[in-house]
Amino acid sequence: MSRFLNILRSWLFMVSVIAIGNTVQSFRAHGFLSEKLYTGQPQLVNGLQARTFGIWTLLSSLIRCACAIDIQNKTLYHITLCSFFLALAHFLSEVFVYRTASLTVGVMAPLMVASFSILGMLIGFQYLEVLQEPVVPHNKKKRN
Hints:
By secondary structure, this protein is mainly α. The protein is 74% helix and 0% strand. It has helices spanning 3-28, 31-36, 47-69, 74-96, 105-132. Helix 1 runs antiparallel to helix 3 and helix 4 packs antiparallel against helix 5. The model has no long low-confidence stretch (mean pLDDT 92).
């Protein structure tokens, strides 16, 4: 396996572990979301929304951890990449469409993580293709 894919695996695992921390914070107190993420309209944040966000974050974490473990699984790789596109779209829409979030450190961090992860995973495709190419022996004769 290439060095790049090993670095990508480590990155995905680290992002997964951090997401577990965000999940715990979402379940402990929904003030975390209104103080750090949805600062544009913090009155809209409630316990139900915080727990839903926590479950979504936990699912994303599990997907990313699974990809870090089995990065050569193309289906899992695509699903993980899609999870980062969804996160990026979510936070951008909350800032620019719904105006429930502002461009604070709490929002910029997931935007940067999603962007860097998307870039890394798109670059990683070329290394996956090298791993996936079947090796065909030249001197092997076909048996009847």
